[in-house]
Amino acid sequence: MSTPHLPVTDVPDTRPTPAQRAFREDVRALLRSPVVQEEVRRIRLLPPGDEPGLLETYRLLGERGWLAPSWPEQYGGRGLGHHESAVVTEEMILAGVPDDAHVLSVDIVGRFVLDSGTDAQRARLLPPLARGEQIATVLFTEPQAGSDLGRITTRAEPDGDGAWRLYGTKVFNQKSGFAETALCAAVTVPGTMPGIGLFLLPLRSPGVTIRTLSNLTDDAFCEISIDGVRLTRDDVLGDVDDGWRMISELLVLERTGVDFHAKIRHWLDSVADAVPAALRERYTDLDARLTAGHALAWRMVAGLDAGRADPVLAAMAKWYVTEQARDVARFCLELRGRDGLLTHQDPDAPDLGRAERALRYAPTLTLASGTSEVMLRTIATSHLELL
């Protein structure tokens, strides 16, 4: 049997157009402006767990239609492509602007609603997200199931007239204390391969209890208990038992690798001016690996704009990019020496403790949006035909 390989023909052109380059320059100018960078500085000095809610930066992007540039104008976007969306994500991260609320609200929840929601759901939920006036979050992960949707136990029980009552517990959710709405996965048809529904859960509803969890990062993760919250048919996203398909399709869009690459590149760039001659070769090696990861990620983005959502290329990009995180974090820490272990709360910490933060965050990148093991299995089964 011949060895499978990536096709070298029909590769989408990843070079930006003049309009796309101008868009990046405009976004970059805003994100590097004094008003945005002052907000970034304030956020970086917050104590661990004391995370920001709605950001003024999001509102500045939103009023220009840049927070969700690929969305139709009627919902607060600019009607542009995946390229422009990726540009905003990349430039936010490289400018030090927290992107977690953007990823959750726009890239995940907003995209689900845009693709599978009713006209009424889109009109109700999308404009405030695109304007940066509200935050939405995701409730998939559970205490015993982790991110394995086949093992979730949160259930949705019919309650007459198209309504449902939700019962269960979700964990490791971000921005739940600030979000208005959560996209919640729940079992609608029990069985060995359960039917899963996606529900738009108002987080201020009676029966929703939010508790903050301790973790290694500076972000606040939450446990959410849902006890008999009643939702109407207007809170059901798409067909009630079609959650598997919707989630599988959207994960491909989430795994471009652009956001992960930008985070790791931000770490490496922060020490670029301090690399001594003895470590220059290692720095160059890491820089080359990140450049290769950047090419993979943007090839995926170009494919999306060409109408090709390739799950194998998405897995390759996500796996390769995030596997560089640990090596880059360790390099940054080694370069800073003992001072690199100082947190941003210590006035003597170099670069506001970026090396220490990178060391804590690096392992999380290989878990988010699908573990490295899951990515390798996708590559092995769908591309190499090994399993």
In short:
With 387 residues, this protein is α+β, with helices and mostly antiparallel strands.
Topology diagram in text:
Elements: H1 18-31, H2 34-44, H3 56-63, H4 82-94, H5 100-116, H6 119-130, E1 136-139, E2 155-158, E3 164-174, E4 181-189, E5 195-202, E6 208-213, E7 221-231, E8 236-237, H7 243-254, H8 258-269, H9 280-305, H10 311-322, H11 325-336, H12 354-365, H13 372-382
Parallel strand pairs: 1-4
Antiparallel strand pairs: 2-3, 3-7, 4-5, 5-8, 6-7
Helix pairs in contact: 1-4, 4-8, 5-6, 5-7, 8-9, 9-10, 10-13, 11-12
Spatial order of strands in the largest sheet: 1-4-5-8
Proportion of beta-strand residues = 5-15%
**Residues in helices, as a percent range:** 40-55%
Secondary structure class reads: alpha+beta
- Mean pLDDT comes to 88
Main sheet record: 4 strands, mixed
Q: Order of SSEs, N→C?
A: HHHHHHEEEEEEEEHHHHHHH
Name the shape in a single word: globular
Structure summary, number of beta strands? 8
CATH second-level architecture of the largest domain: Up-down Bundle
The H-level CATH homologous superfamily of the largest domain, spelled out, is Butyryl-CoA Dehydrogenase, subunit A, domain 3
Uncertain runs are: 1-9
